[in-house]
Specification:
2 copies of one chain form a homodimer.
Chain A (H helix, E strand, L loop, with lengths): L20 H8 L3 E5 L2 E4 L1 H20 L3 E2 L5 E3 H7 L1 H4 L6 E3 L5 E4 L4 H11 L8 E10 L14 E11 L2 H21 L5 E4 L9 E8 L5 E6 L5 E3 L19 E4 L6 H8 L7 E8 L2 E8 L6 H7 L6 E3 L2 H8 L15 E5 H4 L4 E4 L5 E6 L8 E3 L17 E16 L1 H5 L3 E3 L5 E3 L1 E8 H11 L1 E2 L2 E2 L10 E5 L5 H16 L4 E3 L6 H11 L3 E5 L7 E6 L4 E5 L3 H11 L6
Parallel strand pairs in A: 3-7, 15-17, 17-20, 27-28, 27-29
Antiparallel strand pairs in A: 1-2, 4-6, 5-6, 7-8, 8-24, 9-10, 10-21, 11-12, 11-21, 13-19, 14-15, 14-16, 18-19, 21-24, 22-23, 25-26, 29-30, 30-31
Helix pairs in contact in A: 1-12, 2-6, 2-12
């Protein structure tokens, strides 16, 4: 493509709305423009890069035996009512009515649709396994859309759904997807590690998230410093710290006027956080649940929710609910004589001696409390693992980083097939629900993540395989006929062999062209200037030093780069 | 692809919901499945064909110098309020609110978006011309979605928007699109003729629709029997029939109790429809307008609307409005003493003598009425041309056929750029509005039209270039190792040179495989059976006789077909 025919929208200034590198650079390079909060238009340069990512995904999905499909984005409410998710999905779902007042939504995900397709189209075990995927626009009305296409409300997702006749089949389908995902993210040249993820709440039997490290990520990811272990903090089991054994002392009720927080209590009692057990009160689908963890620990709500058998809405109790459960204002809850439906006690608390809890009386705490003697509850792991704790796999220390999920693979099992009566006839003539898996990749988020991991002070640094253009041919002076002739010849030759080449034939200073080329991140650059009198041009990789090469060597030099990156030109 | 891994969803029965060939065949071949009224899912076979059509469009658009773009489907109300269309677009627009109660719609078209992009990104005439296109999902809440993807509520459209500095530039951009469209529909092998279309109401200066003849089409298209003239009936000018001259007679008021319709009047007065002039009363954006045409003619509402300077809402008057205008019940309106804001008189009526009209009094008509002597109005062409009338271009007879619009090219001029203040700086430093064009192709409708024009009693008959698969290799007996070996070898060889080949390795009878292959419309078929002992297989084009050819000749035979169709394998 000739730049004189392109809509170039590079910006020299960093737009005020952008906080992270990828967002800034996608705006500055003219890849995207905001249409509304969390809703973006893809400009030609952005779309070209997006399509490269899509093509990689498509190739690897096809190679893994999946078949491409395309479902509608507008979905009828009835399907979601069948699965029970119409009422569960909250404000995140865009809802609308048609002219006949029928309810629809914009699909935030498509489990229901593909389960419906399977129950209508697949009758026999002979047709299994089937894995259907689509690259399609999804809608989630995020409370806080941010970071450009990294967290947007209209976005492109690759979602796949596998249908198997048994668990062994699902395991195979799942592993194929895991392998495909590793290849996809490798080809995109992003460091996206599969980490163990929670699957309890959605009712599956196995799950992994592909996470890229990112300071602005929405998840905390636990990585072992020694072994391969990696897990979402939601999932990573904690190891209780062992307290030193003490003789059990008598309970003491102490007046603690207006002293509510752990910080205030530590000061008041002149001790450490580890001597306290916090009692947090939740409303879990209408039931009142108290959760106890050590004073310095954080409750892990996913673990709590799973322990309760899968809670849909888990919220901190209201002041009224706290008052009803404790007879006290917020800040004085404790396990003794608390009126709740369930009391969950973190296993670390069971092992503590003579600790301090709220007295369930405004202005009082109780000292020397001990599990078993003074109260009992359901003991389990209800807290977040912390930096430096033991790796659940090898026992070495773990580190915790922020991460962004770019992919997710998930063994759904029969959750949807049972709810929606999606069955097939097995080898013995028996009706059975499909064993399902689902597999997502945030396509637009992957694109942003590539930029997040590949940029410098001058702009984007595209990996060759996803670069919207491979090479930029820049005549220094377009009014110099000889330069234009050489540049055009190189451009045409590269184009003819299938290289994505752009010719910057704009009437602009060379400096402007170089800056645009770097901002857009084009991996290779050929500058056609005065050296053509010696039969030479300048060749430059985006982040390397400039080389002077013979005009006739340009094509081979380009091919060399493709070879180096193990890519074929097509 | 191996059929054993494919989700095959062929149906032997014709689904009751389908009325036209393409809809029946898309369902029967397993290309689409209905999700809700007018909303479809594309099954793997359907999506593969759809992508071939998209690729043809993309190639020709790129070749014509247009650049691909991707706008969001969810659009903020503000943009539409700027152009004034938020209030104009009626129930056809899907509207929704986000969690913050802000108004959005699902884009039925994207003029506003691209005008907005242009005003933000294009500053100078130096950047012009620009033509941006997208292949994107559109939403129109049709009152009566029908015929599968031919008239659906969620559909894929290619829409392009050109921006030029002057009218000459627009003409060039428009003609490039016209040429590209002709190539696109040729490559899709559908007979889609460009016909003149009305452009007055939307405010442009030129427009053509690409129409395919179809009994279930929504438009009447006028074709000349002798020359190239073709126009939408909305646009085609009529030629007034010349009445035989008569002496003007005196007016006679005649009692016509309960006689209202032209049919009843013809009987009552024992004369022909041509002796009557109908007076129809409309509400045109709040004004009351009467339109007179000869008794046997149909009012052309587009012509009426244009004559009134572009009406947004033109509706038949209510009973109350008729009463106010005529002092009579419906059925007795006439031009004499009628109380309307405007009286439009078709030019044919001006040339009639001694005709009969309503008396504006319930139960009465007036005979011997003559234009000029008894009433006056704005004379013009307000009726539909009819079969057998004169061609406006050459004077030969015209035919009228039903047609479906698959494409539309349109000179918008400055309608949107002026409304939305989208300007650039011209050569003289002056601010000017962009001169715009817009160009649409119904992608999913084009796919259906291909099937509509290419099928027989056994199924679809794909043109090679848009066939989801080019060739089907069918081993007669998959348990015969020799047959499977030959079939697999042919399959692999064709695949390796880039042919879209499918191997029907399902454990089914050959007859079932043949039937599926024909229903799916795969253009070539190789049957691998007992003749392999003689080194032979059967080769069959979808609608030709079977040939017996040598195994080693299969690849060349396939290449021959590509050559015959002027296609390269890729």
């Amino acid at each position: 493509m000739k730049m004189s025919n392109m809509l170039i929208s590079t910006l020299r200034e960093v737009p005020a709305e952008a906080e992270i590198d990828s967002h800034k650079l996608m705006l500055r390079a003219g890849m995207i423009r905001k249409m509304a909060s969390g809703i973006y238009n893809y400009m030609p340069l952005g779309l070209k890069a997006l399509k490269k990512v899509e093509d990689i995904i498509r190739e690897e999905m096809n190679d893994a035996g999946a078949q491409e499909f395309l479902a509608s984005a507008v979905l009828p409410a009835e399907l979601w009512q069948e699965s029970g998710r119409w009422d569960v999905y909250g404000e995140e779902m865009f809802r609308l009515k048609d002219r006949n007042n029928r309810d629809f939504c914009l699909g935030p995900t498509h489990e229901e649709v593909f389960t419906d397709i399977a129950r209508n189209e697949i009758k026999s075990y002979k047709q299994l396994p089937v894995n259907l995927y689509q690259i399609q626009t999804k809608y989630r009305d995020e409370r806080r859309p941010r970071f450009g296409v990294m967290r947007s409300r209209e976005f492109i997702m690759k979602d796949a759904y596998s249908f198997d006749k048994d668990q062994a089949g699902l395991d195979l389908s799942y592993n194929k997807m895991r392998e495909a995902y590793i290849k996809i993210f490798n080809r995109c040249d992003i460091d996206a590690k599969p980490v163990e993820a929670d699957s309890g709440a959605i009712g599956g039997s196995g799950s992994a998230e592909f996470m890229v490290k990112s300071e602005v990520g929405e998840d905390d990811v636990v990585f072992c410093s020694a072994c391969d272990y990696a897990a979402n903090i939601e999932k990573a089991p904690s190891t209780p710290e062992v307290s030193e054994k003490e003789d059990l002392k008598d309970l003491v009720k102490t007046e603690t006027p207006n002293i509510r927080t752990i910080e205030e209590l530590v000061k008041f009692f002149n001790t450490t956080e580890k001597k306290f057990a916090k009692t947090l009160i939740y409303n879990a689908d209408g039931k009142v649940v108290a959760v106890m963890v050590r004073g310095d620990r954080e409750v892990n709500e996913i673990k709590v929710s799973n322990a309760l058998g899968g809670v849909v809405n888990l919220n901190m109790a209201t002041t009224e609910e706290v008052l009803a459960a404790t007879n006290a204002q917020v800040g004085f809850a404790g396990p003794i004589n608390i009126k709740v439906d369930t009391l969950l006690v973190d296993e670390e608390v069971r092992n503590m001696y003579n600790f301090i809890v709220g007295a369930n009386e405004t202005g009082y705490h109780i000292e020397n409390v001990n599990y078993g003697r003074d109260f009992e509850g359901i003991v389990g792991d209800y807290r977040n693992i912390t930096e430096g704790e033991k790796c659940p796999s090898c026992g070495a220390k773990v580190n915790i980083s922020r991460g962004t999920e770019v992919g997710h693979i998930f063994k759904l099992g029969t959750k949807y097939s049972e709810a929606m009566k999606a069955t097939f006839i097995d080898e013995n003539g028996k009706e059975k629900p499909f064993i399902m898996g689902c597999y997502g990749i945030g396509v637009t988020r992957t694109l942003a993540s590539i930029i997040e991991q590949h940029n410098d002070e001058n702009g984007i640094v595209w990996p060759l395989e996803v670069a919207p253009y491979h090479i930029n041919v820049i005549p220094v002076n377009i009014k110099d006929e000889a330069q234009m002739e050489v540049a055009s010849k190189i451009y045409e030759e590269l184009k003819s062999i299938g290289v994505d080449v752009v010719l910057d034939d704009r009437n602009e200073r060379a400096g402007v062209k170089f800056k645009d080329s770097e901002l857009m991140g084009i991996p290779m650059r050929v500058t056609v200037g005065k050296k053509i009198s010696d039969g030479e041009v300048e060749f430059k990789l985006r982040t390397a030093e400039m080389e002077t090469i013979k005009i006739e060597d340009v094509v081979n030099r380009v091919k060399e780069e493709f070879n180096k990156n193990k890519l074929t030109i097509r």
